[in-house]
Specification:
7 strands, 225 residues, seven-stranded antiparallel β-sheet, mainly beta, disordered C terminus
Length: 225
Amino acid sequence: MNFTVQRQLTNDLSVSVGYVGSLAHDLPFAQDVNYPLITTTPVPSTGNVQQRRPNSGFGQVFLVQSNQTASYNAMQLTVTNACPITFLFNAFYTFSKNLNSLELDNNQTQGGAQNMLALDEEKGRADIDQRHAVSFSAVWQPEFSYRGNGVVKAILNGWSFSPIIRYHSGIPFTVLDGVDANLDGAGGDRANLAGDPRSVLVPTAPVRELRVAGSISQHLCGIRW
């Protein structure tokens, strides 16, 4: 779904604001239905993974089910200036969020779920999610008389400059602890969260310094949020 509102500000300048959204249901995913359980007997360890499977006679058993989702929502801002003589520019800004119920590996049905029995814990930003994206393009064709000097005018005029500038925020990353924390035989689990990860942004200085702290918070959120 998408819609756009456009406004002509001057003869040469126009602005448009739009929303773009998509929602995908029933995406396929191969879930291990013979995933090792956390049991009291035997005591879970990396050495008895096979023994703790529901059917210890088999290893991993993948069942493909269409039960995953993905969504994309974005605000798009466009500013266009068209001067037919010397200057033209287009500026674009996109503020978006791309979420997946879990991350698939190279668009295949098998992904990197940490716990096959708790797939709801896998929802988060997609690997391709870039919250902010800005691009700017322009074409400039200068024309000068050079005091009537025909040779200089012929040499220096007729050129065009076409810069293209693009900026975007970084893609998300996952902090791993490098060990098999949930004892399922696969290492590289996510690190445990201790405390409030946003507490560093909470100002603890006196009121007279709140303005500076607020500016820092906005800058950090602009990079990572």
